[in-house]
Amino acid sequence: MTSVRIRRRARRAVYFLAATGLLLAACSAPATDQHAAVPDPGTGHLHGLGVDPADGAVYAAGHHGVFRLGGGTAVRVADRYQDTMGFTVTGPSTFLASGHPAPADPDARSPTWA
Fold it and tell me: Is the pTM of this model over 0.90?
């Protein structure tokens, strides 16, 4: 194994360990959103982790949305609270996710049939 591959694997391991620590912190002490009437629920339990090869950013998909991790914080992506059941990074700045909307999401209501 070349030294470049060893360094690359070591860097990925460090990202993973850092993400795990951030996620544990995010799950135990949810932040509050200054625009929300109730505290932000945090990540909830997690369903996926990924590193964006475009910039090395770590993303976590959880019970209450997708989060970008860094600097000791978990920042919600796109201000959405969906339950992201599956998540993967497929390439630079390219993610795939599946799940279902949060029950309180106004866009998730069933259509009214006439």
Answer: no
